[in-house]
Amino acid sequence: MCNTLVYSDLDGTLLDHDNYQYLAAVSTLKQLKAANIPVILNTSKTFAELTEILAELSLTSPFVVENGAAIYIPVNTFNTQPEGTCRVDNYWVKSFSSPRQHWLNLLADHGKEYSQYFRSFSTLSDTELAELTGLSLVAATRARQRQFGEPIHWFGNTEDKRNFIETLTKAGANLVSGGRFLHIGDDCDKGQALLWLTAQYRQQYPNTPISTIALGDGENDSAMLEVADYAVQIFSPAHQFPTLSRQDNVIQTQHYGPKGWAIAIQTLLAKQLSSTSTHLGVNHG
Question: Domain 100-185 maps to which CATH number in 3.30.980.20, 3.10.180.10, 2.30.30.60, 3.40.190.10?
């Protein structure tokens, strides 16, 4: 077991904001794998989306779906099943959220006044979501397979958005802004998921000091960036750096997406990755 856990957002962070490519991070991902450093995807994406992405990236680590709503831990990750999880196929699952239908009902009951200003995923077709995001039709289909929260595309003004958020918050929802969408769900977040999963690693490996690195570009990443030992704010072409109250151990990248991601990882883990560079033929230039 290595002594570092890397928690990463996807869209706009490990994946390019516009084309969803990750080529600039491939060499670093290979180095992390060779160094036995888990890359734990912590994202707003769904289980259906992540299983495909994990296969493409050759990742076998645990992962976090829908902005901290649930953690999926492959059953071979630890020697014993973590307390508070249930077995679902080949995963131990820790859930922090009510199911999606709860939030759809709440949105229908309390969001009527603002319905002309947004479209939720449940009302978008696969084709509409593909056109809105640039995803392929197959990827858009997976993105709509929500289990917990509900993303919405807001196209109203800032004042109406603020009032909408206040109304739904009073009704019991938690709303966070991602790279593209406003996410409605339970009072859970990526930071809570990071802390819980890191605690499981420390419990399973009590003799190994474990530190955490979190990388993200959106406001929905702020919670995990606040609680990680090292926070990496990824430069975005679409919006400002996510807001943080902390000032220690914070890196702001100068490059977008996967290039900024890779440079930050190389900077923070230079010593741990250097031993894997030679046989992988990595060029740090």
Answer: 3.30.980.20
